[in-house]
Amino acid sequence: MIRVLLADDQSLVRAGFKALLDAQPDIEVAGEASDGEEALRRIRELRPDVVLMDIRMPRLDGLAATRRVTEEPGLDDVKVVMLTTFELDEYVFEAIRSGASGFLVKDTEPEELLRAVRAVVAGDALLSPGVTRRLIAEFAARSKEPAAAGSLARLTEREREVMALVGIGLSNEEIARRLVVSPLTAKTHVSRTMVKLGARDRAQLVVLAYESGLVRPGWLG
User: Which positions does the record annotate as the modified residue 4-aspartylphosphate (predicted)?
Assistant: First the structure.
């Protein structure tokens, strides 16, 4: 059973998500919070698998709350998906840097929300249904100058190649086709790369691909 915590200051939003999620045989809403401070307390108390976290909340915003969750050792297994009103919200990029597994717009289709919850539990990043490449292009345009690439020395040549493909938004299946390997092999390469670089999930791997200079703006064509 996938346990979800809903953190949003709008009760109607929480009610709508709760009704949808609780209707699934493999998902349950473990708790709710109406602000960032309450969300942190509930996360520590309930240890949910996934937190659907609104970016804009009183007392402590979702961005700061997410950063605390991802930095707290005991909460390593908690995945945070940010909720935003706009697809390219100005805080989305910082949210991913802070360790969020991705983000969703609040008016996303129900099936996409369900897919998102299941995807992050499976270890996949959710940058946004249907707009992954556009988001990455926007992130690239806003990214800082590449940092030193010393950490990439830990990777094999194939792992660097896979990381670059993750960085331009390819799924495991697309990477497999590009490299003419099985999807399982592609997933293994991605997982090993994440472990070597200490990336929390696929979203952070994308960030590292840009920050290291392995992928540059304009590569998407």
Answer: 54
